[in-house]
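Summary for the steering committee. One of the milestones for this cycle was to obtain a three-dimensional model of the protein with zinc ion bound, which we needed before selecting residues for the alanine scan. The sequence and ligand used are listed below.
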Amino acid sequence: MWNLSRLYRLLFHPTILKPTPPSNSAIIHDMDATAPNTVLHCTQCGGELHPDEGQLFLTCPYCGATVYVDKAHVVFHWYLAPTLKEQEAGASLRRWMAGNQTVKDLDQKATMLGSTFEYFPLWYFKHRQKSGREDILYEPAAATSVSELRRLNLPAGDLRAYEPSMDSQARSPTVPLETALQWLAQRQLPEGEVVEQAMVHIPLFTFKYQYRANTYTAVVEAATGHVFANIFPAKAEAPYRMAGVVTALVFLCLAIFPVIGAMSNNGKYLDIGLGACVGLGALAAPFLFVLAAWVAAKI
Ligand SMILES: [Zn+2]
Protein backbone atom coordinates (compact mmCIF):
# COMPACT_ATOMS: atom_id res chain seq x y z
CA MET A 1 0.00 0.00 0.00
CA TRP A 2 2.38 2.60 -1.26
CA ASN A 3 1.14 6.12 -1.02
CA LEU A 4 3.66 8.22 -2.85
CA SER A 5 2.22 11.65 -2.17
CA ARG A 6 2.13 10.91 1.54
CA LEU A 7 5.63 9.49 1.46
CA TYR A 8 6.79 12.61 -0.34
CA ARG A 9 5.12 14.85 2.22
CA LEU A 10 6.71 13.00 5.11
CA LEU A 11 10.17 12.85 3.61
CA PHE A 12 10.23 16.37 2.33
CA HIS A 13 8.39 17.90 5.21
CA PRO A 14 8.91 21.67 4.85
CA THR A 15 10.88 22.75 7.86
CA ILE A 16 10.81 26.21 9.33
CA LEU A 17 14.21 27.12 10.66
CA LYS A 18 13.94 29.63 13.45
CA PRO A 19 17.22 31.13 14.66
CA THR A 20 16.22 31.28 18.31
CA PRO A 21 18.77 29.82 20.72
CA PRO A 22 17.56 26.64 22.40
CA SER A 23 17.57 26.53 26.17
CA ASN A 24 17.34 23.59 28.52
CA SER A 25 13.94 24.69 29.68
CA ALA A 26 12.74 24.72 26.09
CA ILE A 27 13.87 21.13 25.69
CA ILE A 28 12.17 20.01 28.88
CA HIS A 29 9.03 21.85 27.87
CA ASP A 30 9.06 20.14 24.49
CA MET A 31 9.54 16.72 26.02
CA ASP A 32 6.76 17.22 28.54
CA ALA A 33 4.28 18.40 25.97
CA THR A 34 1.57 15.81 25.45
CA ALA A 35 1.53 14.22 22.03
CA PRO A 36 -0.89 15.98 19.71
CA ASN A 37 -3.85 13.98 18.48
CA THR A 38 -2.49 13.65 14.99
CA VAL A 39 -2.48 10.33 13.24
CA LEU A 40 1.02 8.96 12.76
CA HIS A 41 2.00 7.37 9.47
CA CYS A 42 4.89 5.12 8.55
CA THR A 43 7.64 7.00 6.73
CA GLN A 44 8.03 4.15 4.25
CA CYS A 45 4.55 2.80 3.46
CA GLY A 46 2.26 5.47 4.91
CA GLY A 47 0.46 2.91 7.08
CA GLU A 48 -1.20 4.20 10.24
CA LEU A 49 0.93 3.68 13.35
CA HIS A 50 -0.33 3.32 16.91
CA PRO A 51 2.64 3.47 19.29
CA ASP A 52 2.10 2.70 22.96
CA GLU A 53 2.40 5.69 25.23
CA GLY A 54 6.04 6.71 25.55
CA GLN A 55 7.10 4.28 22.84
CA LEU A 56 9.70 5.96 20.62
CA PHE A 57 11.13 3.09 18.59
CA LEU A 58 8.68 1.29 16.34
CA THR A 59 8.65 -1.41 13.71
CA CYS A 60 5.89 -0.80 11.15
CA PRO A 61 3.44 -3.72 11.26
CA TYR A 62 2.71 -3.34 7.53
CA CYS A 63 6.12 -3.00 5.89
CA GLY A 64 8.61 -3.76 8.68
CA ALA A 65 10.37 -0.38 8.49
CA THR A 66 11.99 0.74 11.72
CA VAL A 67 10.98 4.26 12.60
CA TYR A 68 11.43 6.77 15.38
CA VAL A 69 8.45 8.74 16.70
CA ASP A 70 9.11 12.35 17.69
CA LYS A 71 5.80 13.91 18.63
CA ALA A 72 4.00 14.40 15.33
CA HIS A 73 6.99 13.38 13.25
CA VAL A 74 7.80 9.88 12.16
CA VAL A 75 11.28 9.42 10.75
CA PHE A 76 13.37 6.45 9.66
CA HIS A 77 15.41 4.91 12.43
CA TRP A 78 18.83 3.58 11.43
CA TYR A 79 21.94 2.36 13.13
CA LEU A 80 25.56 2.13 12.16
CA ALA A 81 27.10 -1.30 12.69
CA PRO A 82 30.35 -1.36 14.68
CA THR A 83 33.41 -2.80 12.95
CA LEU A 84 35.81 -2.35 15.87
CA LYS A 85 35.94 -4.35 19.08
CA GLU A 86 36.90 -2.72 22.33
CA GLN A 87 40.59 -3.61 21.94
CA GLU A 88 40.75 -2.18 18.42
CA ALA A 89 38.95 0.99 19.52
CA GLY A 90 41.49 1.29 22.35
CA ALA A 91 44.29 0.99 19.77
CA SER A 92 42.71 3.85 17.78
CA LEU A 93 42.69 5.95 20.93
CA ARG A 94 46.38 5.16 21.61
CA ARG A 95 47.32 6.24 18.08
CA TRP A 96 45.44 9.50 18.56
CA MET A 97 47.19 10.03 21.93
CA ALA A 98 50.57 9.49 20.27
CA GLY A 99 49.69 12.06 17.60
CA ASN A 100 50.34 15.74 17.29
CA GLN A 101 47.29 17.23 19.03
CA THR A 102 48.05 15.92 22.49
CA VAL A 103 50.83 16.28 25.03
CA LYS A 104 53.97 14.39 24.04
CA ASP A 105 53.90 10.66 24.91
CA LEU A 106 50.34 10.88 26.25
CA ASP A 107 49.81 7.31 25.03
CA GLN A 108 52.47 6.14 27.50
CA LYS A 109 51.79 8.59 30.32
CA ALA A 110 48.01 8.23 30.52
CA THR A 111 46.42 5.59 32.71
CA MET A 112 43.35 3.95 31.18
CA LEU A 113 40.43 3.70 33.59
CA GLY A 114 38.10 1.58 31.49
CA SER A 115 35.50 1.91 28.77
CA THR A 116 31.77 1.56 28.13
CA PHE A 117 29.86 0.81 24.94
CA GLU A 118 26.56 2.24 23.79
CA TYR A 119 24.62 3.18 20.70
CA PHE A 120 24.34 6.94 20.85
CA PRO A 121 21.45 8.75 19.10
CA LEU A 122 22.07 11.45 16.51
CA TRP A 123 19.69 13.44 14.37
CA TYR A 124 20.58 12.93 10.73
CA PHE A 125 19.82 15.69 8.22
CA LYS A 126 20.29 15.73 4.51
CA HIS A 127 20.77 19.37 3.57
CA ARG A 128 20.43 20.35 -0.08
CA GLN A 129 22.05 23.60 -1.16
CA LYS A 130 20.65 25.76 -3.94
CA SER A 131 23.42 24.50 -6.20
CA GLY A 132 22.04 20.99 -5.69
CA ARG A 133 24.97 19.86 -3.55
CA GLU A 134 23.89 17.65 -0.65
CA ASP A 135 25.54 17.42 2.76
CA ILE A 136 24.79 15.05 5.60
CA LEU A 137 24.72 16.89 8.91
CA TYR A 138 24.31 15.61 12.44
CA GLU A 139 23.16 17.00 15.75
CA PRO A 140 23.34 15.07 19.04
CA ALA A 141 19.97 13.66 20.07
CA ALA A 142 20.93 13.17 23.73
CA ALA A 143 23.06 15.03 26.23
CA THR A 144 26.78 14.64 25.61
CA SER A 145 29.95 16.40 26.67
CA VAL A 146 31.41 15.59 23.26
CA SER A 147 29.79 18.21 21.03
CA GLU A 148 32.40 17.32 18.40
CA LEU A 149 30.14 14.42 17.47
CA ARG A 150 28.35 16.73 15.05
CA ARG A 151 31.51 16.69 12.93
CA LEU A 152 30.96 13.00 12.31
CA ASN A 153 31.63 11.76 8.81
CA LEU A 154 29.92 8.40 8.45
CA PRO A 155 30.81 5.97 5.71
CA ALA A 156 28.08 6.37 3.08
CA GLY A 157 25.65 3.52 2.66
CA ASP A 158 26.51 1.81 5.93
CA LEU A 159 23.27 2.68 7.71
CA ARG A 160 21.01 -0.25 8.51
CA ALA A 161 17.48 -0.57 9.84
CA TYR A 162 17.49 -0.32 13.63
CA GLU A 163 16.85 -3.60 15.43
CA PRO A 164 14.76 -3.82 18.61
CA SER A 165 17.36 -6.24 20.04
CA MET A 166 19.68 -3.24 20.41
CA ASP A 167 17.38 -1.45 22.85
CA SER A 168 19.38 -2.41 25.95
CA GLN A 169 22.54 -0.83 24.52
CA ALA A 170 20.86 2.17 22.88
CA ARG A 171 20.53 5.48 24.65
CA SER A 172 17.06 7.03 24.30
CA PRO A 173 16.92 10.32 22.41
CA THR A 174 16.00 13.32 24.56
CA VAL A 175 16.47 16.15 22.05
CA PRO A 176 13.30 16.83 20.04
CA LEU A 177 13.53 17.19 16.28
CA GLU A 178 12.53 20.86 16.45
CA THR A 179 15.42 21.62 18.83
CA ALA A 180 17.93 19.83 16.60
CA LEU A 181 16.60 21.84 13.65
CA GLN A 182 17.14 25.05 15.62
CA TRP A 183 20.74 24.03 16.37
CA LEU A 184 21.20 23.29 12.71
CA ALA A 185 19.84 26.72 11.80
CA GLN A 186 22.47 28.34 14.03
CA ARG A 187 25.24 26.86 11.95
CA GLN A 188 26.36 29.09 9.12
CA LEU A 189 25.08 26.81 6.37
CA PRO A 190 24.88 27.76 2.71
CA GLU A 191 21.33 28.58 1.69
CA GLY A 192 19.28 25.46 1.16
CA GLU A 193 16.76 23.19 2.82
CA VAL A 194 16.59 20.02 4.87
CA VAL A 195 15.24 17.40 2.50
CA GLU A 196 15.54 14.35 4.74
CA GLN A 197 15.70 13.73 8.45
CA ALA A 198 16.24 10.54 10.40
CA MET A 199 17.28 9.10 13.74
CA VAL A 200 20.61 7.23 13.72
CA HIS A 201 22.17 5.27 16.57
CA ILE A 202 25.94 5.14 16.23
CA PRO A 203 28.27 2.74 18.10
CA LEU A 204 30.53 4.50 20.59
CA PHE A 205 33.15 3.37 23.04
CA THR A 206 33.65 5.92 25.79
CA PHE A 207 37.08 5.68 27.37
CA LYS A 208 38.11 7.33 30.61
CA TYR A 209 41.78 7.94 31.30
CA GLN A 210 43.85 9.73 33.86
CA TYR A 211 46.73 12.10 33.23
CA ARG A 212 48.38 14.12 36.00
CA ALA A 213 45.53 13.62 38.50
CA ASN A 214 42.88 14.74 36.00
CA THR A 215 40.34 12.41 34.44
CA TYR A 216 39.55 12.82 30.75
CA THR A 217 36.96 11.34 28.44
CA ALA A 218 37.51 10.32 24.85
CA VAL A 219 35.00 8.74 22.54
CA VAL A 220 35.89 6.31 19.79
CA GLU A 221 33.30 5.82 17.07
CA ALA A 222 33.35 2.06 16.53
CA ALA A 223 32.65 1.98 12.78
CA THR A 224 35.56 4.13 11.59
CA GLY A 225 37.77 4.40 14.69
CA HIS A 226 37.50 8.18 14.66
CA VAL A 227 38.38 9.71 18.05
CA PHE A 228 36.34 12.56 19.50
CA ALA A 229 37.39 14.56 22.53
CA ASN A 230 36.45 18.08 23.54
CA ILE A 231 38.88 18.38 26.42
CA PHE A 232 42.23 16.60 26.46
CA PRO A 233 45.82 17.30 27.59
CA ALA A 234 46.75 19.48 24.63
CA LYS A 235 50.22 20.48 23.59
CA ALA A 236 51.08 23.69 25.44
CA GLU A 237 51.59 26.54 23.02
CA ALA A 238 53.18 29.04 25.41
CA PRO A 239 56.74 27.58 25.24
CA TYR A 240 56.63 27.70 21.41
CA ARG A 241 55.53 31.33 21.49
CA MET A 242 58.21 32.12 24.07
CA ALA A 243 60.95 30.62 21.89
CA GLY A 244 59.64 32.68 18.96
CA VAL A 245 59.60 35.89 21.00
CA VAL A 246 63.16 35.30 22.31
CA THR A 247 64.39 34.72 18.75
CA ALA A 248 62.69 37.87 17.46
CA LEU A 249 64.08 39.98 20.32
CA VAL A 250 67.65 38.76 19.84
CA PHE A 251 67.64 39.64 16.14
CA LEU A 252 65.91 42.95 16.78
CA CYS A 253 68.70 43.90 19.22
CA LEU A 254 71.36 42.85 16.70
CA ALA A 255 69.69 44.91 13.97
CA ILE A 256 70.14 48.01 16.11
CA PHE A 257 73.96 47.88 15.71
CA PRO A 258 74.01 48.93 12.03
CA VAL A 259 71.36 51.59 12.75
CA ILE A 260 73.54 53.06 15.52
CA GLY A 261 76.55 52.79 13.23
CA ALA A 262 74.72 54.60 10.43
CA MET A 263 73.58 57.42 12.71
CA SER A 264 76.95 58.02 14.40
CA ASN A 265 79.51 60.33 12.80
CA ASN A 266 77.77 60.52 9.41
CA GLY A 267 77.79 56.74 9.01
CA LYS A 268 81.47 56.29 9.79
CA TYR A 269 80.78 53.22 11.96
CA LEU A 270 78.14 51.64 9.68
CA ASP A 271 80.55 48.92 8.58
CA ILE A 272 81.41 48.04 12.19
CA GLY A 273 77.70 47.97 13.07
CA LEU A 274 76.90 45.70 10.13
CA GLY A 275 79.78 43.44 11.00
CA ALA A 276 78.68 43.18 14.62
CA CYS A 277 75.12 42.36 13.53
CA VAL A 278 76.14 39.58 11.11
CA GLY A 279 78.82 38.17 13.41
CA LEU A 280 76.70 38.08 16.58
CA GLY A 281 73.72 36.87 14.56
CA ALA A 282 75.77 33.91 13.32
CA LEU A 283 76.82 33.19 16.92
CA ALA A 284 73.27 33.46 18.30
CA ALA A 285 71.60 31.34 15.61
CA PRO A 286 72.81 27.91 16.86
CA PHE A 287 71.70 28.73 20.43
CA LEU A 288 68.26 29.80 19.26
CA PHE A 289 68.02 26.68 17.11
CA VAL A 290 68.90 24.49 20.12
CA LEU A 291 66.28 26.34 22.20
CA ALA A 292 63.59 25.67 19.59
CA ALA A 293 64.61 22.01 19.27
CA TRP A 294 64.56 21.60 23.06
CA VAL A 295 61.05 23.08 23.28
CA ALA A 296 59.84 20.79 20.49
CA ALA A 297 61.32 17.72 22.20
CA LYS A 298 59.90 18.51 25.65
CA ILE A 299 56.34 19.53 24.91
ZN1 LIG B 1 5.34 0.89 6.98
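Key point for the committee: Confidence is low (pLDDT under 50) at residues 7-36.
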